[in-house]
Request: fold
Amino acid sequence: MDGSNLPEVRSTCAYCGVGCGVLLRPDGAGGLTVRGDPDHPANFGRLCSKGTALGETVGLGHRLLTPRAFGRNVGWDNALQLVADRFRETIAAHGPDSVAFYVSGQLLTEDYYVANKLMKGFIGSANIDTNSRLCMASTVAGHKRAFGTDTVPGTYEDLDQADLVVLVGSNLAWCHPVLYQRVLAARQARGTRIVVIDPRRTASCDQADLHLALNPGSDVALFNGLLTEIHRRGAVDPDFVRLTSGLEAALETAGNDQISETGLPAEKLAAFFDLWINTPRVVTVFSQGVNQSSSGTDKVNAILNSHLATGRIGRPGMGPFSVTGQPNAMGGREVGGLANTLACHLDIENADHRAAVQAYWQAPAIPQSPGLKAVDMFRAVEDGQIKALWIIHTNPAATMPEADRVSRAIAACSFTVVSDLTLNTDTARLADVVLPAAGWAEKNGTVTNSDRTISRQRAVLQSPGQARPDWDILAEVGRRMGWKTAFDYASPAEIFREYAAMSQIAAQFGKDFDISGFSEIDEAGYAELEPTRWPLGRKGAGGRFFGGGHFFHSDRKARIVPVAHRRPAALPGPKYPFVMNTGRTRDQWHTMTRTGLSARLSAHLAEPFVDIHPQDAAREGISSADLVEVTSPTGRGIFRARITQDVRIGHVFAPIHWTAETAPSGRVDMLVPGTTDPISGQPESKATPVSISLMQAPWYAFAVSRNPLTPSVAYRATVRTDNGYRTELADHARIKNWEQTAREWFALTDADAVTAGDPARGSFRIALSQNGCLQAALFVSPRPLPLMRDYLASMPDIPPAQFLTGRAPADAKDTGPIICACFGVGLKTIVDAISCGKAISVDAIGAALSAGTNCGSCRPELGALIDRYSPDAADNLSLQLQGGVA
Ligand code: SF4
Reply:
């Protein structure tokens, strides 16, 4: 059936905290067409590569369709009763703090609200924490210290109106691409300048006027230096400072810090201070590079201090602006998804707030103190203090620091429930009960983006099998645990209404979070709800925060918090001489459970990699495309080497996306220690001391196959292609009979085989076909293999013997790894156009090849390729493919 006559449905992107509006239309074949919503205030029609590919991720092949308990399919009735009974029995025997929920910034606000109400109001424990703890808990703590509440004063319009945008620990170009495009548009329109503060050179540096590659963890020293300089130059705003307290103490502490801790040259520091101090309209955008630190909260306050001292906050084009990683990280903060907060920004430590929340919910209990934050929660699971655990839409076995330890703890927990779309996650595989949850395109609810805009997510596809919305699953468990009235919800609109009415309590306590204007919204109003930035009280919209002061401490003053620089908790030394940074890649999202379903997104960077500086690589005997062992005190991984000056000497960078399913030895979080910020509880994910060494294996292999290839070897990395899968392999164990091994690995024992190579010299190639159709091929070599991987991954219809040459025929072109995911334009195509002089600007590449003309996410890479390969470039090196072997 063709879906082209169906109406488009307005919804919100499933991924990052930009919260782009999307227009979705079922294609009649189970998929979706997707385009940006031109009327959504976050993106005005723009989407990045991930958003553009949303329609490719809604297939059902991987979906869990039926509840499962202890390895068997069961009905919902049995599954829900089992969950309710086991939680009730555990609480009865061991108390409410013996159970926990670990939830996700990808839950809708209505889901979050029910989970939080169930745990905090009815079970009576605060042991509910969210994976946003790993993302922006330091911002929450910093905001609360400075403002009295977790209020984000910035708006996206500020980025349009700023004269200077400072990106601190934020690769906005890859992690929030649509916001980055807004910044670039402002640059074009009004000459907005850009400063990037990041130890690593990222795609966001491409258009930057200044890149400060500071020492990891030295942001406090830098911003204390800025505060000192603001004061020295008389740039403090005395009228605004009267609305604050603490400046003198903060200046004294800042004055004791050593700016040399940043490792930045004096001229770069002076340029930054000049730019910041002389530009009133400055927005300081910060993200995980600030938050994921053992001093993350202090870093946040160091940034806020400079804005408070100058009064550059809450007015057009200026202010500190934290951008969130997940689609509803902000909604989770608002609804009390963190173990140390109550709903509506109310405080768990405040007896009046607790009493008001308990009364509103007519709840039997309310916790008297904060619950366990994520790292401590899983330590309590390990210790056996937590005996029943419900993990909802998140994958802690892959993403928590010390991931292997967390996996063992989950596996050993007395009773673990997972709600998810699939059984194929590292965490779901460990659970006793797995509940099939509805997916992004099947759910109704709301999300809040980074600038406090609440948007509707709307169901556009039917849930497959027996999958159900999370609010519905949670409410049913609540009813079965005995709280029938409190969880008697018929729709997400009813939950939203209750939540909106609850926010009036917060307003009465003088808190910021007020959406009571929605407290009488009916089903039709909820269905039509337009994107709305809060506050929205009963008397209407509240406008901006803090332009005229009015902070949320009891004296209504902000706090300029004295903060002193602290180095990362663990420093490099003789055993672990490198510092490992971690982060995202452009086209993948979290653990790839969704983006990994898209072949074109998977084509950008197809392996877990580690970026190494050329001098370090030379010293360690590592060449581009070698495999490298990376070892920390908590684990050892294997990654493909990329030699690049983007990282500093002594530093390496590895992406976060790989899991036991896709690349068991490429899981970066098994290397990251569980060290946390003492205030926020957020782990230090950006500064892990590691050692690196060349992995020397007797064989390396590349495979293409119609079905996934999962042999147990030292190194395996698998991604999807249009026709199946491509896999990189290596191991220390020698294999005697490669043909037999290949047949077993591919489960093609009876297939027709064509072979080539010299097994005695460690070289072997085999193509396996059935009925004249290529099913799989394996290329083995004693060294990392030079092959036309992207061409081979397409499994072209050519004779097997020709396929085994590993090269395209003369009349076929290997375009190389995908750079522009929207139009499928490969690296080699782009480099050819640049090096022959046909396209030596990003716009010219767009005109010639269309690359970079849709979402714009690849434009920084196009610029970098021009720098490198244009006929005039001094650095016109031989072509090295990204994430693989040329
Ligand atoms: Fe989605 Fe990209 Fe927009 Fe983020 S920037 S919300 S990933 S389309």
